[in-house]
């Protein structure tokens, strides 16, 4: 599992990195602010971000978590507070869990091992021809087919793959990706509105002829 640690206290981040790597996971980047989290993701999408709630920068942990949700990148909050008030404040952001300071190695091991099992169900690596693609289930908005090519529209980018829509849906094997038209499949997580003839995904209005949703 590839992990980014976002923690503005360097000594704390280094301590957490040692724990994570001892468990057997890879820390691909350590950053100190939310802006750097988003920049790092543009370079390489992690499986998980360990995100300090109280980073002392303009883009703090909560603002960063909101953006990670839009990108479909899962995260765990790092916090010095495990009280009900703190948990209630951030529950709406749907973190996969919490790591409480001071760190207890065995608790982190159990948490990250459990989360790894969940994440494996949400990430796919596809090898199409000579190219390799990596997708998180939550980041895909919809897929558009044009003969033997498909365009995957995510919350940030568009990807063109030489594969049929039927085969692509099978390769992704995400339960929320469903076909709604001969040329379109959508992610049910992002459905805003649906009627007999159309489905709205974010700001996109797509044709609907199949009753998958």
TrEMBL record:
One of its GO terms (molecular function) is phosphorelay response regulator activity. Gene3D superfamilies: 3.40.50.2300, LytTr DNA-binding domain (2.40.50.1020). InterPro entries: CheY-like_superfamily (IPR011006), LytTR_DNA-bd_dom (IPR007492), Sig_transdc_resp-reg_receiver (IPR001789), WalR-like (IPR039420). The modification 4-aspartylphosphate is found at residue 52. GO terms for cellular component: cytosol; protein-DNA complex. The keyword Phosphoprotein applies. Residues 140-213 form the HTH LytTR-type domain. Keywords: DNA-binding, Phosphoprotein, Transcription, Transcription regulation, Two-component regulatory system. It comes from the Bacteria. Residues 2-116 form the Response regulatory domain. Pfam families: LytTR, Response_reg. GO terms for biological process: regulation of DNA-templated transcription. This is Response regulator transcription factor.
């Amino acid at each position: 599992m590839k992990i980014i640690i976002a923690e503005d206290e360097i000594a704390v981040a280094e301590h957490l990195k040692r724990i994570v790597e001892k468990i057997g996971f890879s820390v691909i980047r350590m950053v100190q602010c939310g802006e750097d989290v988003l920049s790092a993701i543009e370079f390489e999408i992690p499986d998980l971000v360990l995100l300090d709630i109280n980073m002392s920068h303009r883009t703090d942990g909560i603002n960063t978590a909101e953006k990670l949700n839009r990108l479909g990148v899962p995260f765990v909050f790092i916090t010095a507070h495990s009280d009900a008030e703190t948990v209630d404040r951030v529950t709406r952001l749907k973190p996969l869990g919490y790591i409480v300071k001071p760190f207890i190695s065995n608790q982190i091991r159990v948490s990250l091992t459990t989360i790894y099992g969940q994440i494996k169900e949400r990430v796919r690596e596809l090898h199409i021809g000579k190219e390799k693609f990596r997708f998180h289930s939550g980041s895909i908005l919809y897929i558009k087919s044009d003969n033997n090519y498909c365009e995957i529209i995510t919350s940030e980018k568009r990807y063109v793959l030489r594969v049929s829509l039927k085969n692509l849906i099978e390769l992704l094997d995400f339960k929320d990706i469903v076909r709604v038209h001969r040329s379109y499949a959508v992610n049910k997580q992002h459905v805003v509105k649906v009627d007999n003839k159309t489905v709205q995904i974010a700001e996109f209005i797509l044709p609907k002829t199949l009753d998958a949703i």
